[in-house]
Design a protein that fits this description.
- The protein has 173 residues and is mostly helical.
- The chain is 65% helix and 7% strand.
- Strands 1-2 form a two-stranded antiparallel sheet. A two-stranded antiparallel ribbon has the order 3-4.
- Strand 3 and strand 4 form a beta hairpin.
- Helix 7 packs across helix 8.
Amino acid sequence: KWLQHFNTVRSQLGDEVRKGLDSIEALAAFTALDRPGPLDAYVGSGDNKHNMLVEFAHRAKGAQKTGGFPILDKLFPETYGVMVYQEQLQQAFQQVGKTTGIEANNFRIHVSKKMPFEMMEDKKIFMKGALETVGAEAAEQLWQSMETFGAYGFNKSHAVCYVIITYACAWLK
């Protein structure tokens, strides 16, 4: 019933109608964002401030973007520029911070295992390249967002498996 409800919530964009949660991939993203880390990572300001789950839902329905980082729109078009999975956290660390794949994977491990000393070292590595890529203020904001998100972020395979099992159980019921 909840899936039917979300699929009927529509946003008119000219002649185009977009459904919010219309695939296993969209449901997996929604599931991955319904976790403490992503729920604690906020975008926007004032009355328009909300967490990444709400931002993803708005963007999936075609609503105006209220926050986030323009560089992530280019890196993650499949999730509307919203960092959803640990793999995206790793990709942002590597692309924005101009780091190696090994450094990015180490960061993913450090943040997911809650290793604060190692994360402080990772921040130094990230900020070197990020200052050039997005500037000081955006680099600091992005770091804070990645650090908050990563604390309890899902990897994509986890989220997809959970959704497939949930969907199958709901159908069987």
